[in-house]
Design goal:
- The structure is a single chain.
- It contains 3 helices and no strands.
- It is an all-alpha fold.
- Helix 2 (about 15-35) packs antiparallel against helix 3 (about 45-70).
- The longest helix has 27 residues, at about 45-70.
Amino acid sequence: NNVMDVKELRDQDESQLNEQLIVLLKEHFELRMQQSTSQLSDLSKLNKTKKSIAQIKTIINEKKSWVKLIQ
């Protein structure tokens, strides 16, 4: 599973976070397709990927904000 600890995510640089975000978005899309065709048995996977996507996007935005503050 791609769910990571928030501390581990914060230690990654922005390019690593973007790569992970792309993987999660693809996984989320596949899970949504499975759900729409009634093939998804564990609905919590959908919520977990959605939460992970939100966490990564938040951390990316925080990093961008810090860069602006430092400059």
